Every structure is written in structure tokens, then in C-alpha cells.
Amino acid sequence: VTGTRLRVDWVRCGGHLSCADLLPELIGVDEWGYPVPAPGPVPPDLLRLARRARSDCPRLALRLTPGDGADARRVPSGT
Amino acid sequence: VTAGPGPAAVAAWPDPKALWYLDRAAGLVLLVLLTVAVALGQASVRYGGRPGRDRRLPRFLAVDLHRNAALLGLSLLAVHVGTAVADDFVDITVVDAVLPFGSPYRPVWLSAGTLALDLLVAVAVTTALRRRLGPAGWRVVHRSGLAAWALAVGHGLGTGSDIRRPWVLALVFGCVAVVGAATVLRLQSAPGLSRGLRAAACLLVLTAPLVTAGWLRAGPLQADWGHPAGTPAPAGGHR
Fold first, then answer.
1. Which of B62, B43, B51, B135 is nearest to A34 (CA)?
2. Is the CB of A33 less than 8 angstroms away from the CB of B52?
3. What is the pLDDT of residues B176-198, one digit of tens each?
4. Beta-carbon separation of A16 and B63 below 8 A
5. Where are the alpha helices (DSSP H) in chain B?
6. Complex ipTM, two decimals?
7. Does B131 touch chain A if contact means CB atoms closer than 8 Å?
8. Measured between alpha carbons, how far is A68 from B91 in angstroms, rounded to an integer?
9. What is the pTM of this model?
């Protein structure tokens, strides 16, 4: 699924950085201790880890969103 | 074919009580696993926060061990319930394992275990569906894990099969001490509670073991506990 992107729901995010622990390849940390997801699409070989990071977020603040309409069927929007 | 007393008579296999012993052993290990899961879950609220700020519990404890202890506990719960149903000594059906007050065997205390099972299944299912439920709905159900743990302790003490063994009693009170301490700590980071309510909750947590100890002395620790607990006549021979 090319085109899936990481997005942080900033209202929910509590800076636990569970996502940065689980997916350091794509998620950095800013100077205030909040995650900085890489802007580009998630490489296919990291999708499994990205889903794990999404489900392990204590606040459910990490989302995987389709980058374009073509992937909308495979990745439910907003989750 | 075993003739006379001696080792040959002991070596009967399968021991007709094997399932019953397995049931009780699974229950004890299950209590330890639930204790680990509940205490780590509570500790992670206070100590599993932001790294470099308020996190004092590493993620593999706060998240992974919490989850793995709970999942291992669920599989042992299946063993605990499965052996109780399969065993002939007590009359417990599959329905009795899920719905309270169905079996004549020590109904109140068996039902405490039944309710604990139901709550734990609810906690597991809602966690599996956590992304669909959202954090608020998930949290409400997840908190009943503590109630499930308390019901499980009551189930173990009240059924009372092994509770007159000193090491079992020590194990149970060790578990109570761990979860009690975790609960008191957890209450310190409950901003929604007023100071008075928090103090009352702490007092409740600290006095509950004392009340329980007093009740144990009067009830399950007495030799004839099987009668007031409700043990049907044919099954009354063993505890």
C-alpha cells in the first residue's frame, strides 16, 4: 500500500513517544518531546511496524492515512 | 491390579483427581499473572508517561509485560475454567462458568469467579477493539480489570480449597499487597478525584485486607468451611 502516511492527532498526543520507540525509522522527536513523523509515504516493509505503533499508542493519537484516493479502500480513513 | 498399601497404590495414573489439582494450580498461577498485569497497568498511569520527564517504568514493563501477563493469564483462565468443567468432582457446566449462580457448588464464591471471568473477557474484547472504541470508552471498561482482580481474590479465598496452606495464604496476601500498593499509587494520579474522595479510597484499600483477614479467620480458615460455603453432599469429600 504505497501512499499511506503517518499523521499525529495533536489533540490526543501526550508525548509518550511510544511511536518513536517502535518506529524510529519514521518518527523523530522534537525539542519539546513530541513525535515528528516523516512526511513521505510509509515504505511497505515498515507498514507492519507502523500499524503496531498505531495500535500501541496509549492515546490512540497516531494515524495512518491514505496519501491519495487510490488507497482509500484499503486503509479506512481516519484510523 | 495394585495390591495392598505402599508406593504401588499411590502410583495410580491418571490420578482421578488430576484435573481437580490442575484446576487449583491454574487458579493460583492465574492470580499471580493477574496481579502482575493489574499492578503494571496501574503503575504505568503514573510511571509510564513521557520519557525524560515522568517515565520511570520502561515500555517493556509498562506495556509489553502488562499485555503478555494478561494474555498468558487469559489462556490459563481457559485451563482453570476448562478443568473445572471437565472435572467430575464438582457439578459445574459450561454455562455455570459464564453465568453466575448456576452451580450448586459454593455458589457465591464460584459466582465471584464467574463475574471476574466475564469482566476479563470484556476487558480483552474492548482492548482488541480499542481503535474502534476510542480511548474514553476503552478506559471505562479497562478499569473494571481491577474489579475482576478483586472478584478473583474473593473467589479464591471464599472457595477456600487451598487457603489453609500457609504458603497459599502468603501468596494471596502478597498479591493483595502488590495490587493494594499499586492502587494507592494510582489514586495519587487521579486528578478527577477530590482530596477527600482520594483519602477515603486509600483508606478502603488499606483496610480491605484487614477486614478480609478477619473474615478468613471466621470463615474459610475453619475446618468445616465447605458446609457454609455450600458444598453439595456427594462432592463434599474433598476440598
1. B51
2. yes
3. 999 999 999 999 888 888 899 99
4. no
5. 7-10, 18-47, 59, 66-86, 94-98, 107-128, 130-133, 135-142, 144-159, 166-188, 195-218, 226-229
6. 0.75
7. yes
8. 60
9. 0.86
